[in-house]
Write a structure and sequence with these properties.
single chain; three-stranded antiparallel beta sheet; 13 helices
């Protein structure tokens, strides 16, 4: 229906948030994707290359116990960010519709102004290459590329050594950290590993056209932002329950919501493994397998990925598919009327 070769269950797991759990007093586990030194000893006696130290490998996490009361602040922050995301995107949709309606009403009849339009078109300069490229993009790509740009900017900031302490504080979610709330959102756009960033953005690009076609760009952004903070809270909840402080970063929680929404909305769509296109399977089956793996990771305590964040994001996407789309976004009329009255009075 949308893509025959969209993604495979094997590739899906590449988009994972991988946690840095505390193991013992100084032995740290993995970040949403394990970030290890890529340099190895070449040969005995040979000169070893000087490698850039990974800032996530030398962090000393607070090993004090985590208490349930520490979840109150992140919980209310999650509710607040979700509410603001929905309200902001509803206003965005309203302003877009208002702008389109105004431009349509101001548009003169073509049969009366054809000569004037021809003269005007000759005097107006050609748009630049950047504007031409932007106008050539599909609706989903106009949403994807700003998200990609934010992720690439944060990825570049990780390479600036002077910024790394601030990146660890504000772009890695951690229930035992001094900054708890803002990293729940900022970590959704944070990747340290090139493979982690590339895999997440590839999966998002693959599934975004189907999601945007179904939801519209405004509702998609609202769901994506909400899923990011909800998946971070799910990770917090799991870590507090097991008393395992750790860092997490990556967009995979929000991407899992997009993936599960598309798979639930179009369960009969045939997906295939990118390198084995001859083997296809239903999207509904794929998301069940992926969520089963994450559930097993949560139960068995696997620490290579942040399975709790994945599972939280996937569940949020399913809830949005079956309930949020119709009962939350579908009942935005009262808020639109309220906003319209405020906007009208402010004129």
């Amino acid at each position: 229906m949308f893509f025959r070769n969209v993604k495979s269950a094997a590739e899906f797991t590449l988009c994972c948030k991988s946690p840095l759990f505390l193991q013992g007093s100084h032995n740290l586990g993995n970040v949403r994707l394990q970030l290890r030194n890529s340099f190895h000893n070449s040969r005995r006696g040979a000169r070893r290359p000087i490698s850039e130290p990974n800032p996530l490998d030398v962090i000393q996490l607070d090993s004090s116990p985590l208490y349930a009361k520490s979840l109150f602040k992140p919980f209310f922050f999650t509710v607040g960010v979700t509410t603001l995301s929905l309200a902001g995107c509803v206003i965005w949709e309203y302003e877009n519709l208002r702008s389109h309606a105004s431009s349509f009403l101001r548009r003169p009849g073509a049969w009366l102004n054809s000569h004037q339009k021809r003269i005007t078109s000759q005097t107006i300069s050609e748009p630049g290459p950047l504007k031409k490229w932007w106008n050539s993009l599909r609706e989903s790509e106009k949403v994807f590329y700003p998200i990609l740009a934010l992720n690439v900017m944060v990825f570049g900031a990780w390479r600036v050594r002077a910024l790394q302490p601030h990146m660890i504080k504000y772009f890695c979610s951690n229930p035992s950290g001094k900054a708890q709330c803002l990293p729940m959102v900022f970590s959704t756009f944070s990747h340290y590993s090139t493979l982690h960033l590339a895999a997440n953005m590839y999966v998002l690009y693959s599934f975004m056209p189907a999601a945007v076609a179904s939801l519209g760009k405004e509702q998609f952004v609202a769901m994506y932002m909400s899923a990011g903070v909800v998946s971070s809270f799910a990770s917090f909840l799991y870590k507090v329950m097991l008393n395992q402080p750790g860092l997490s970063l990556g967009a995979s929680g929000a991407i899992m919501a997009v993936l599960s929404y598309v798979c639930m909305q179009y369960p009969d769509t045939r997906l295939s493994i990118i390198f084995l296109p001859m083997y296809t399977f239903a999207a509904g089956t794929a998301i069940k397998v992926i969520m089963s793996v994450d559930l097993a990771g949560v139960i068995l305590g696997w620490k290579f990925f942040d399975h709790a964040a994945h599972l939280g994001g996937a569940l949020f996407g399913m809830v949005w598919c079956y309930w949020g789309n119709s009962h939350v976004w579908g009942n935005r009329d009262k808020f639109l009327q309220y906003y319209h009255s405020i906007r009208k009075d402010s004129r």
